[in-house]
């Protein structure tokens, strides 16, 4: 994070002494104070800060919950009720943590779709983007294991359904499932290892977040125009401009968060999870948390078990290829009129898949799931590669400053390719 | 903004997930509760009546394992006096031990004890109740719900509707009727309009006039001694047992909201003032990044 020239000069004698031994002050200065930020960022760019806040909030509430929680199949449910009833502000800690997971996903989905819309995944930010996808996968694993810990009916049966997916893998599938379970069914060993991993993974996320922020500081932030910073006039220093904006956005997000925690704390959960886990009784509908529903719909759309598992994992793995699947040289969808249409269709398909994931896999729901799943992959594998070759993008502004100030200088800015002709690859 | 709205809609879309199998089950009517909304509080007299219904009717089959006698005198609940709670607890026999001789013994209950279960274990409960143990009631008001469907589940977020479990319980307790013509009720089952599948193991638990309510100055019962009123009172009580800190939660929530809104207003104007410096020329240019893309 220190490749930017910093104007930081330690003032005190101690500062100078320390700086020559560990230049952390100048690192912070160059990364979070002097760091140039495009001046035209919208509030969609505050979700990075919101996500850091959510990660820290989850770790802090989680560490305190772990002081009271008992990861044992015969005591877990009871210990959660102990937290809810007897621990001072235990109800607050648990509702913050449980709803915090959902808020984390609300923020990450906005962050991801912002990245899709403004082409932030394209060169030179591929590594930054791939690290983000890795964080998302780690988040999903962490959230899944966290939902198992209260050991209610949906915890138990959700764990059974999801871990069973791995049995679809040929030859080694059954062995993998036994390792996940620590036995021949979901039970106490499963709960123990999930608790251990649920505690570990957030710190791994934290590590990848540091890499993600580091990778962000090399090319700098993308912005609504998608064109890079060309002069100092296009940018403002991170502090105080981005700092105050991020703090404001975090506090507004906290209001949204508080609404769920204090007024409808169980809305995002399942009633069945207030029934203790019972291996002898299967709930009528086993449904994952809302943030997994689109992927769950893709899983169930394929009639074959292994095929469904492959489709579900591919739905995320295809994200890794996005920087190379998208052939358009224009980053921001604001200048891609045709892609804008496809982008919103894609958003609608994701919402539709989420709704289908909450419905039973029967009747016409299955057919619609299959069509939506097919379109999901068509978006990545057909629309993204082909559209970039045929689309006529709108003219880009000459600079961020020009786009902000609305300066019109004769022509219409930088032509893309040979004056708005269809692009050719390469 | 539109994207955000859509994403939130996406976030909410999955939540209509039903806890029960779909069927020809009618939607429970939405009732008015004193504990609903941002300033909701329990009605103490109602909780005390509900507790009486639990004690005289439900407790013969259903445990209430997560609730201690002492909870009955805590703020935000039925708020019996501590002396009342001590006297109440003493009426129960609680197993304790082993003592110095290594024997288990029975002693009168204390305020710190949890409600003793009516059966020694789940198998005994099942054996005495036609093969299925009656569920514990501590969390019942949060462990049951009904499907809301589109668009209600979205509106529920804004109007803070979280009494779906309570509405379902009242409907269920009122839902015992003669089965419609041609509907076969198997032996040991009972017809209930609101129970998913309509066959419930629990027989009609309560009838009009079964529980005597406290009298007011005129010798009139405090509330009607009807099944519907019993159902509402026991449900209010079970909402409290499921969520004993509901009042504290909503009270703290209001304070947190006020604080956050005031803070966000201050931050908004601070942000505006700072950004006002960014006119045509940025004061103190930022250094452009060294790495450039094509």
Automatic annotation (TrEMBL), chain A:
Q: Which Pfam families match?
A: Cytochrom_B_C, Cytochrome_B
**CDD domains documented for this protein:** cytochrome_b_C, Cytochrome_b_N
SUPFAM superfamilies in the record, alphabetically?
a domain/subunit of cytochrome bc1 complex (Ubiquinol-cytochrome c reductase), Transmembrane di-heme cytochromes
Task: Alphabetically list the UniProt keywords.
Answer: Electron transport, Heme, Iron, Membrane, Metal-binding, Respiratory chain, Transmembrane, Transmembrane helix, Transport
Q: Does the keyword Chaperone apply?
A: no
> Where does it live in the cell?
Membrane
Q: Where is the Cytochrome b/b6 C-terminal region profile domain?
A: 228-398
As for what it does, the entry says:
Component of the ubiquinol-cytochrome c reductase complex (complex III or cytochrome b-c1 complex), which is a respiratory chain that generates an electrochemical potential coupled to ATP synthesis.
Q: Oligomeric state and partners?
A: The main subunits of complex b-c1 are: cytochrome b, cytochrome c1 and the Rieske protein.
Question: What protein name applies here?
Answer: Cytochrome b
Q: Which organism is it from?
A: Microvirga aerophila
Species classification: Bacteria, Pseudomonadati, Pseudomonadota, Alphaproteobacteria, Hyphomicrobiales
TrEMBL record, chain B:
Q: Record's family?
A: Belongs to the cytochrome c family.
Q: Which sites bind heme c?
A: 58, 61-62, 202
Query: Where does the chain cross the membrane?
Result: 252-269
What PROSITE patterns would the database entry show? CYTC
Organism taxonomic ancestry:
Bacteria, Pseudomonadati, Pseudomonadota, Alphaproteobacteria, Hyphomicrobiales
Q: What is its main location?
A: membrane
Q: From the UniProt record, which GO molecular function terms apply?
A: electron transfer activity; heme binding; metal ion binding
Q: Where is the Cytochrome c domain?
A: 45-242
Where is the secretion signal located? 1-21
Q: How is the cofactor bound?
A: Binds 1 heme c group covalently per subunit.
The record's subcellular locations are:
Membrane
Show the Pfam families listed in the entry: Cytochrom_C1 (PF02167)
The name this protein goes by in its record: Cytochrome c1
Which GO cellular component terms are attached?
Answer: membrane
Protein's UniProt keywords contain tRNA processing: no
Q: Which UniProt keywords apply?
A: Electron transport, Heme, Iron, Membrane, Metal-binding, Respiratory chain, Signal, Transmembrane, Transmembrane helix, Transport
Cofactors required: heme c
